[in-house]
Amino acid sequence: MSAITDLTAAQLAASIVAGETSAVEATQAYLDAIAARDGEIQAFNETYPDRALDRAKQLDADRAAGKQIGPLGGVPVAVKDNLCTTYGRTTCASKYLADFRAPYTATAVAKLQAAGAVVLGKANMDEFAMGSSTENSGMHATKNPWDTGRVPGGSSGGSAAAVAGRLCAAALGSDTGGSIRQPAAFCGVVGCKPTYGRVSRYGLVAFGSSLDQIGPLTRDVKDAALLTNVIAGHDPADSTSLPNSVPDYLAQLDEPIKNLRIGLPTEFFPDSAEALSPDTRAAIGKAIDAYKAMDADIVEVSLPHSRIDVAADGAISSFAVSAYYIVCTAECSSNLARFDSVHYGHRTKDAVDDIVTMYSRSRAESLGEEVKRRVMLGTYALSSGYYDAYYNKALKVRRLIADDFKSAFRKCDVILCPTTPTPAFRFGEKTANPIEMYMADIYTISLNLAGLPGLSLPVRLSESGLPIGMQLIGPILREEILFRAARMYETTNPANLVPPMVMT
Ligand code: GLN
Predict the structure, then answer these.
(1) pLDDT tens-digit series, residues 63-93
(2) Please, which residues bridge with residue 187 across strands?
(3) DSSP label of 302
(4) Is the pLDDT of residue 141 over 80?
(5) Which residues of 194-219 are buried (b: 16+ CB within 10 A; e: fewer)?
(6) Ligand 1 centroid to 211 CA: how many Å?
(7) What interhelical angle do 221-231 and 107-114 show, nearest 10?
(8) For ligand 1, mutation pick of 196, 328, 377 (most atoms within 8 Å of CB)
(9) Span 372-392, mean pLDDT?
(10) Which residues' Cβ are closer than 6 Å to ligand 1?
């Protein structure tokens, strides 16, 4: 096993700056790891070995010439396949966009590159980011490096599996309802969804525009802070990006927060093994004890409109999940309307007489079931007569959810809860019932509705050896509190999560 692939992004960048490792060596080490193991994990949809090595050579030459190569100088990364790049394809893991070449590069990717990162390739995902297991990918199924019979989570499953499986030093994902945090939890890595608007969405193929946010998946909290430093900030190309200046998330990272007030939402600890598995409950309980040992104050808070309901027959429901599936499907039905098979996208080879048949046949041939389901649900929710009954009602619930968080943050600095109800599930376990799959995000979805930042941190392994994630939630634009609180935990309770297949 190569030592290079064990380093965090920050450690690797430091070793390249110090001249102990070169960018070319680092890139080659990861390309070798991909060649050796990605046949099994299948985290990538496409890799760019020649481009990556050329870029690494340039960085080494710049360093030799005394130039600054940036805080991620020579660090090999993966980016989710819904982030546009002028090189290679941007497919959103959809057969519809299988040959799409973007005319521009997403701001977040451009910023990573400007900071010296070397993009190795595009990571697999659920088609158009719709899903929680990467099983909805139109390309192939990505395996969880901890147990290849299990899903890596989704929709940023390729990014999470690549970071966990030592196939890249760090990765970018996108999170609309949990798609960074849930796969991070399943794969035992750190995942951060910044505040809505903190990172430019320019060049991120839109799914639910009022919910989508780009963020990092990394080996540790320091790397998450480092990558967020690089990608955050206002971008005139995205009118929803926030104008606020970005603090240096690394500046006080290692300073523990004194008397940190941690809120535990009573509604997020339901008495049901389906909604909260016993090993997840136990792991979160131990994490709470660890914070108590660090003199944190634990307070109860209430998030009534995000509450998890368990019916007598065991069925799980949540207002937040219901509201989310109205809002995100409505937005996706509008966003996906641009895929007309004229400007771009798959076009049917059949001879058709009229344009409507051309649209419907092209889409029917190349879009997956889940994408079709969401476009139909969203179109229905927005149609006249149903708009008030569904869409407007969901917006009202969304406001109530956001208000609950505001009240909760009067009593605490961060909120702590599980990231997911259970550790990674098996392939096929939830594909027959979309509602069951939707419930994989009961702990993550309400943050997107409220626009709040959230971070998933691996805390320990379950009895069957699978990673368990803890979610920390912060007030709007207070990512630094999340990073510091997570770092406090990480430095005193290192999880040291290395998936077994890397060791063999
Ligand atoms: N699993 C959720 C969904 O299917 C969230 C996806 C995401 O965050 N992109 O919509």
Answers:
(1) 999 999 999 999 999 999 999 999 999 999 9
(2) none
(3) -
(4) yes
(5) bbbbbbbbbbbbbbbebbbbbbbbbb
(6) 10
(7) 110
(8) 328
(9) 95
(10) 129-132, 155, 175-179, 207, 328, 441
Give the DSSP H or E segment for 437: helix 434-438
What pLDDT does residue 504 have? Answer: 41
Task: Compute the distance between CA of residue 496 and CA of residue 23 in angstroms, rounded to an integer.
Answer: 25
pLDDT recorded at residue 344: 87
Residue 4, both tokens: 């290079």
CB of 430 closer than 8 Å to CB of 436: yes
Tell me which H or E stretch contains 123. Answer: strand 118-123
First-last CA distance in the chain: 9
- Cα gap 137→122, rounded to integer Å: 13
Nearest to 122 by CA among 57, 38, 60: 38
Instruction: Quickly name the fold that domain 9-255+453-503 has.
Output: Amidase signature (AS) enzymes (3.90.1300)
> In the numeric block, which tokens belong to residue 408?
């909760």
> Which sequence spans correspond to the domains of the chain?
9-255+453-503, 316-398
Give the span between the Cα atoms of 494 and 491, in whole angstroms.
6
The model's pLDDT over 409-458, given as tens digits with 9 standing for 90+, comes to: 999 999 999 999 999 999 999 999 999 899 999 999 999 999 999 999 99
Cα–Cα distance measured from residue 42 to residue 230, given in angstroms and rounded to the nearest whole number: 27
Catalytic residues: 80, 155, 179
Cis status, amide bond into 94, omega within 30 of 0? no
Distance set, CA 24 to CA 21, 69, 75, 215 (Å): 8, 13, 10, 26
Residue 97 in tokens: 């966009």
Answer left, alpha or beta for residue 337, where phi above 0 means left and psi between -120 and 50 means alpha.
alpha
CA–centroid distance, 337 to ligand 1, in Å, is 19
